[in-house]
Design brief:
about 290 residues, alpha+beta, Alpha-Beta Plaits, five-stranded mixed β-sheet, 6 helices, about 60% helix, about 15% strand
Length: about 290
């Protein structure tokens, strides 16, 4: 007795979903057809009354689709010695002035003889992308630049259509759940409803992600100070000689140790073979009666 209502529920679900998805387009098509027919009749009447040929009415323009493009860029810049902090501060100012924000920032602290370097990632509104690129390019000398864009308009339209379809399915399932008269039918509809709502949330999440990625462009900067610190007297000094000598000594010791470690097993085997051969010769040299 519980199988018949369940089959009816699933049949109603399969029949209702396509109707819900196509009802909007059918209504719009029929309304457009009636409007066109009425307009054509009115034009024909006016043409007949005036004795002149009437021009065909202009078709209504289709709604435009705003392109959805994800813009990214990465720049490697070198700045003058001591200008790293100023360049980073200016990049932060550019992001704030254009309505953006800083995503991440990393700086390698200065060590002896090495300049400052680090990275900075900012996001700015997509409509200000060209302005932001021009501003950050003036922070230093450009060593490399890589720009990329990805058009996700087709995916975005598909996701919107999928979301509308899933919303229609959700409404139909909620209505069927309210009309379910058995526990088996209610459980069947509830399981399908949970799966539909999960897919709907995933679709909405992807739409929100694309909205964020297309609304803001991402610009990654790698900054470094040009040149390295030299000794006060310039050139090669006594400390450099000691340092180079110590490194050479360590390399020689390490190489000697490797050679000895490699030859040690061979030397041991050779010594054992020599002792065995010596013992055999001593046995042969003894008289036959003494053995």
């Amino acid at each position: 007795m519980t199988k018949t209502p369940l089959v009816l529920v699933l049949a109603l679900l399969l029949a209702a979903v396509p109707a819900a998805c196509s009802s909007g387009s059918d209504d719009a098509g029929s309304a457009a057809g009636e409007t066109t027919a009425a307009g054509g009749a009115a034009v024909s009447d006016e043409a007949a009354a005036g004795g002149e040929e009437a021009a065909a009415p202009a078709a209504a323009p289709l709604p435009g689709i705003t392109p959805k493009v994800i813009q990214t860029a990465s720049l490697r810049l070198s700045v003058a010695r001591g200008g790293y902090e100023d360049a980073v501060s200016e990049a932060r100012t550019v992001a704030a002035r254009l309505g953006g924000f800083v995503v991440s920032s990393e700086t390698v602290q200065r060590t002896a003889g090495r300049p400052l370097r680090g990275s900075l990632t900012i996001r700015v509104p997509s409509r200000r992308y060209a302005e932001a690129m021009a501003a950050v390019s003036r922070l230093g000398r450009i060593e490399s630049v890589n720009e990329g864009s990805e058009d996700v308009s087709a995916e975005y339209v598909d996701l919107q259509s999928r979301a509308r379809h899933l919303e229609a399915v959700e409404r139909q399932l909620l209505e069927l759940l309210d009309r379910a008269d058995t526990v088996a039918a209610a459980l069947a509809v509830q399981g399908q409803l949970s799966q539909t709502q999960l897919e709907l949330e995933q679709t909405r999440g992807r739409i929100r992600f694309l909205d964020d990625q297309t609304a803001y462009s991402t610009i990654s900067l790698e900054l470094r100070e040009r040149g390295e610190a030299q000794p006060a007297g310039g050139g090669w000094g006594v400390l450099d000689a000691w340092r180079d000598g110590a490194r050479a000594f360590v390399r020689v010791v390490a190489g000697t140790f490797v050679v000895l470690a490699t030859l040690a097993p061979l030397a041991l085997l050779a010594a054992l073979a020599w002792l065995a051969l010596r013992a055999v010769r001593r046995r042969r040299a003894l008289p036959a009666g003494s053995q």
